[in-house]
């Protein structure tokens, strides 16, 4: 298994962040790692979507967990490995929110692909979370 987690804190309320997350069609407006997204349904468990990075091939994914206002999880199933990313909001005492992205690569090939693929997937987490926070605070 390969894993990585990154968090930031913001003055923005969880509901402001959640509104941004749940508008999947708008993700490319604030996430520079997404050149194009095609969503095959509502922001709901089971919805499939395809993200295309600025340089690279389209990546088919699926929403597998949603706790409104708190967490959503997506997966990319490559057969011999699975990339799971959890997006979590935690209200902070006194106001604000901790935003966490956590990626795990599991499965038979995880030990082979994780050390190379994992850092490629997660390298932009600081920039993505900074952009998300700017949008929520703006």
Share of residues in helices: 25-40%
Q: Compute the number of strand runs.
A: 7
Determine the CATH superfamily: START domain
Return the domain count: 1
Name the beta content range: 35-45%
Computed Rg: 15 Å
Q: Biggest sheet, strands in spatial order?
A: 1-7-6-5-4-3-2
Largest sheet features: 7 strands, antiparallel
Low-confidence stretches: none
Q: Cα distance, first to last residue?
A: 37 Å
* SS-based class: alpha+beta
At CATH level 3, the topology is Alpha-D-Glucose-1,6-Bisphosphate, Chain A, domain 4
User: What would CATH call the class?
Assistant: Alpha Beta
Compressed to H and E, one letter per element, the order equals EHHEEEEEEHH
Tell the overall outline.
Answer: globular
Protein name: Polyketide cyclase
Organism: Planobispora takensis
Pfam family, one: Polyketide_cyc2
InterPro entries: Polyketide_cyclase/dehydratase, START-like_dom_sf
């Amino acid at each position: 298994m390969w894993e990585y987690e990154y968090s930031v804190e913001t003055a923005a309320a969880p509901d402001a962040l959640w509104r941004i997350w749940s508008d999947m069609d708008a993700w490319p407006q604030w996430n520079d790692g997404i050149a194009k997204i095609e969503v095959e349904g509502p922001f709901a468990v089971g919805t499939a979507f395809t993200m295309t990075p600025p340089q690279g091939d389209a990546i088919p994914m699926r929403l597998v967990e949603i706790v409104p206002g708190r967490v959503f999880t997506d997966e990319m199933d490559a057969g011999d490995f699975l990339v799971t990313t959890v997006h979590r909001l935690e209200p902070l005492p006194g106001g604000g929110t901790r935003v966490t992205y956590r990626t795990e690569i599991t499965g038979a090939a995880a030990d082979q692909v994780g050390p190379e693929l994992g850092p490629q997937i997660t390298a932009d987490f600081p920039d993505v979370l900074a952009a998300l926070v700017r949008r929520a605070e703006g």
